[in-house]
Design goal:
This protein is an all-alpha fold. It has five helices and no strands.
């Protein structure tokens, strides 16, 4: 189903209790009728979508993520990030195992030192 960005923006503005005139002020448009016109548009230039996103503090690009080709690009990016996360998790796990092994070595060495001190004390 194609994205009708004007309707999405209008619904968000109304949900925030904003009139067209208030939205026009927020995006520095003198005539609120321009905002009403945008509400009727199925598509808008990206710079205008970003302007509405900033003004209404809502990501109006997000609805396009379910549409091709952005859907495929986003899935690819997600897979790449998941791979990076997995790689970093494995490195973290390795570091934690190494740290645990070193802590065990330190504990063993402390026990050995304590035993040697006791032996030295016994020989005095």
């Amino acid at each position: 189903m194609p994205v009708h960005i004007g309707t999405i923006i209008k619904e968000e503005a109304q949900g925030q209790g904003l009139t067209s005139a208030q939205v026009a002020d927020m995006i520095n448009v003198k005539n609120y009728q321009n905002v009403d016109y945008d509400y009727k548009k199925e598509s808008l230039p990206i710079d205008k979508i970003l302007l509405y996103s900033e003004a209404l503090k809502k990501n109006f690009i997000a609805p396009y993520y379910s549409e091709e080709p952005l859907k495929t690009y986003r899935e690819q990016e997600f897979a790449e990030w998941q791979a990076k996360i997995s790689e970093l998790q494995e490195k973290l796990d390795q570091a934690e195992r190494l740290l645990a092994a070193k802590e065990e070595t330190i504990a063993t060495q402390k026990e050995l030192i304590d035993t040697q001190r006791k032996l030295i004390e016994e020989r005095k």
